[in-house]
Amino acid sequence: MQEGAPVARLLEAEWASAEEIGRLFLVLPKEPQDLWTVDVIKRLFDVSIIWRTETGWAGPSLEASLGR
């Protein structure tokens, strides 16, 4: 999560989309080392973040990502 490139690509895709995008998700391969960065990125860029765990998925936006 130290690189901003994935977030920038998400924002670029939203900008280029012909349709309005309701929510952007950043899907990480594992839990971030510094969990505080999740909240910072979510606030700065309005991007929901989830990550893979050994048993499934986790993250503050998990319920929304599952459509609940």
Rg computed from alpha carbons, rounded to a whole number of angstroms: 12 Å
Poorly predicted parts: none
Largest β sheet strand count, sense and barrel closure: 3 strands, mixed
Mean pLDDT: 80
Distance between the termini: 26 Å
Proportion of residues in β-strands: 15-25%
Q: How would you describe the shape?
A: globular
Order of SSEs, N→C? HEHEEH
The order of strands across the largest sheet is 1-2-3
What is the topology?
Layout (H helix, E strand, L loop, with lengths): L4 H12 L7 E5 L7 H10 L1 E6 L4 E2 L3 H4 L3
Tell me what you see in this structure.
The chain is an alpha+beta fold. It is built from three helices and three strands. A three-stranded mixed β-sheet has the order 1-2-3.
